[in-house]
Amino acid sequence: MDISDEGQPLDPVWHEISNNVCGVLAGAPSASLVAERFIGAGWRSLSGSSWESYEVETSWCRIEVDPTDRGTLLNGVVDPQRFEDLAALLTRFGMWFSLELYDDDRGLLREIEAGTPSAPRDADPQPFNWLPAPLRLWSRQGGTRRGGGR
Q1: CB 59 within 8 A of CB 10
Q2: In what side-by-side order are the strands of the sheet with 54-58?
Q3: Which pTM was predicted?
Q4: 5 assigned to some structural domain
């Protein structure tokens, strides 16, 4: 895949903060194809930290896309006000995912998952792991579950 510098670079205000977002894409075809989808959505692509990884960014987010034998890992920086926008983009890509947002002290602030249509409607969300996530998009903030379900 070619690297693209046509999108917006990360806003400098986010350069100084530690990684605050991580996630996994279950069943993603390859890190290259994931990066291509971000580029197709107007993001920039940079060389990643390894031969098989990619870094993608826009003004409000920069994430590393790393392939593993269990899924594709995401980690980086996101404007906390745009965390749901990142989840919406992954949903638009049609990917099963789990994303977590952390504060400066590495405390979990939010968790969003979207997944397979085969999960029962009343299934509880799975903890962050390598399994596909439940059907609906759900969010947990401060221990309170929002969205469909009980």
Answers
A1: yes
A2: 44-47, 54-58, 61-67, 72-78, 21-26, 96-102, 108-114, 138-141, 144-147
A3: 0.71
A4: no
